[in-house]
Amino acid sequence: MKAVILLRTNPGFQEKAYEVLEEVTKRATARGVKNISLVHCYGRFDGVVTCDCPDSKALSELAEDLRKKGVFHTETLIAIE
């Protein structure tokens, strides 16, 4: 299942949040999540994560991991294939 996760960070915590994102992506590959990419953005969202997850449980765990240490909001969009 392909998904896009939109991220918002707490003001002043962007650097810490991006460090956490790099750690999370490393752990996610161990759970079978593939093709993870992170793009930093200006606008309503601060970042966009795209990934390919084996199931909804892995996607949920990834989104939960992202909502720590600086990232205060995520919005997950699941692709229709």
Task: Give a short synopsis of this structure.
Helices cover 35% and strands 36% of the residues.
Summarize the structure in words:
There is one protein chain. The chain has 81 residues and is an alpha+beta fold. The protein has helices at 14-30, 56-66; strands at residues 2-9, 34-40, 47-52, 71-78. The protein has a four-stranded antiparallel β-sheet with strand order 2-3-1-4, with helices on one face. Helix 1 (14-30) runs antiparallel to helix 2.
SSE string:
EHEEHE
Total DSSP helices = 2
Helix-residue proportion: 25-40%
Biggest sheet, in brief?
Answer: 4 strands, antiparallel
Instruction: Report the structural category.
Output: alpha+beta
Low-confidence stretches: none
Strand order of the largest sheet: 2-3-1-4
Categorize the overall geometry. globular
Distance between the termini: 8 Å
Number of strands: 4
Whole-number radius of gyration? 12 Å
Strand content: 35-45%
Mean pLDDT, all residues = 85
Q: What layout of secondary structure does this protein have?
A:
Layout: E1 2-9, H1 14-30, E2 34-40, E3 47-52, H2 56-66, E4 71-78
Antiparallel strand pairs: 1-3, 1-4, 2-3
Helix pairs in contact: 1-2
